[in-house]
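SAMPLE LOG
Freezer: B-3
Tube label: C17
Construct: single chain, 155 aa
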Amino acid sequence: MSSDFYMKINDYTPEPSGVSLTGLDLNAANFDAQITLAQDLVTAINNISIGLAIRWHVQHNTQINADESAAATNAFAQREAKWLVRYHGNVGGKKYRCEIPCPDLDLLDANNKGYMDLDDAGVGAAFKSAFEAYVKDEFGNGVTVDSVQHVGRNV
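STRUCTURE (predicted):
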């Protein structure tokens, strides 16, 4: 019922980190639409991360963006810093989370420090929209993004 989405992002050193999510299985009827939604999600992730997107894939369809050994150009692109995305399933309300490395901290909400503004009609809202359009729970149901928080991780 679901397919794997994976995106590899290198930091400044260039150490890799990944983003793993679930979407609908690809088939002849939905292939073009799902790939378009995945591309929109990749763009949205690139717009909230200062890391270098190396590659991404959905099911068995891979897109290479840069050399595996390439590094992000911004010295603040460190994989130990993350966006923690909290979301829930629209059916049953099960809670989920994922991490996106190398957050662009210029996107922090001035009124809710530590969190991205998801209602700004800009990059945050575009990320939320692309995420909710592509990502599904393990049963193929839609999800809703609850928050995107800046966190630090020891990796």
